Description:
The protein has 264 residues and is of the alpha+beta class. The chain has helices at residues 2-5, 41-46, 84-94, 97-105, 113-126, 133-145, 147-150, 189-199, 205-212, 218-241, 245-259, and strands at residues 10-13, 21-26, 29-35, 53-58, 64-69, 73-75, 156-158, 167-170, 175-177, 184-186. A five-stranded antiparallel sheet has the order 1-2-3-5-4. A three-stranded antiparallel sheet has the order 6-8-9, with helices on one face. Strand 4 (53-58) and strand 5 (64-69) form a beta hairpin. Helix 5 (113-126) packs antiparallel against helix 6 (133-145), helix 6 (133-145) runs antiparallel to helix 10 (218-241) and helix 10 packs antiparallel against helix 11 (245-259). The termini are far apart. Keywords: Transferase. Residues 14-219 form the Aminoglycoside phosphotransferase domain.
Amino acid sequence: MEQILGKEWTITPAGGSTGEAYYAKSEEKRLFLKRNSSPFIAVLSAEGIVPKLVWTKRLENGDVITAQQWLEGRQLTQDEMKHERVAALLSKIHHSTELIDLFMRMGKKPLEPEMIMAKLKETHFNQRQVDTSLDIHKALKYLQDKLPYVQHKNKVVCHCDVNHNNWLLARNEQLYLIDWDNAMIADPAIDIGILLQKYVPRDEWASWLDRYGIHYDEDILNRIKWYVIAQSVSFIQWHYERNENKECTVWQNTLQKMLSKIEV
Length: 264
């Protein structure tokens, strides 16, 4: 990174799971740098979804470095995830024709529920020793039985990791959704469901969805249930493979909570 910016810049790791993000500072200038960031960062920047893109540079080895405006701010609290601004920004993302057009031009294929089922079943078969096999067996049966309810739905660009840690509230009160490495074309319920399950009380789902811009009905409820259960199983499997027992337990509890409200 130093050879790109010059010796007058101080560069420090910004953390994160990939270890490819950095903060850069030089006198009054500040930048957020990332190696091989999402290729559609320019569109996200233009639409005000992420902090402003300053420049992009390709290295000799093929890596691409992006520099974004470094904003002072903070992540949202869990309680703030219920606020109207979150629903409004997520709705803006899901209804962005520019984003979906870019994804399609890049050759991105929609994530179909059948693909999710196949992956979950394959992983379950390879993890026969998992302690929660009974709950996962019930979950997989539910997902298979309810598959027709989530097929052939409209697909949009989804962030796929709407955890409160990825929402940046800048000092000027501008809200951003950052870290787009897992984004894909999918049913918007894949974002909506996990957000509602984690942060919004059940009796407030209808009002939150109204702020998002859709009516709370049986169709969206079925899709929310399906994707939350599917994601819960996926996260259990992911953390189990890495021996992350604490995180695994969190998603086991989420899955059990969902299964307790349905007949499987």
